[in-house]
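Figure S7 source data.
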Amino acid sequence: MVSDKLDELRAVNVARCTSVDGFCFALHDHSLLEWSACLAGEAGELCNAAKKMNYGRGSTKDLSDELADVVIYCDLMAAAMGVDLWSIVVEKFNATSEKRGVPYRLATRTPSPPPCPKCGGSGKAPGEGGHG
Ligand SMILES: [Mg+2]
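Tokens for the predicted magnesium ion complex:
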């Protein structure tokens, strides 16, 4: 599911950005203006890759790399804002569909059930640290 993949991206993306063995850069080290400038920079690189392809240079791989950078920075900016990227995409997508009078909607995130208080969601059998 896409929202699960975005959850994975968020966890690893923020860890890579902020950890000592990663980029060692706290999310609050950038203002939202600076995060948006980073995002715009990647969008500019995407445009440049598309321009090169239009002139017969570059490749779909170059374009894909820059598109991925845009998504990665969208996630970092959303993390810096303290919002869930999937939730705001769903909200905006559905609002636009409503505004334009078309039937297409994305499903809102279904909250995960809380983990089992006995096994913490490990599912281990009794005697193995799970239910017992
Ligand atoms: Mg780039």
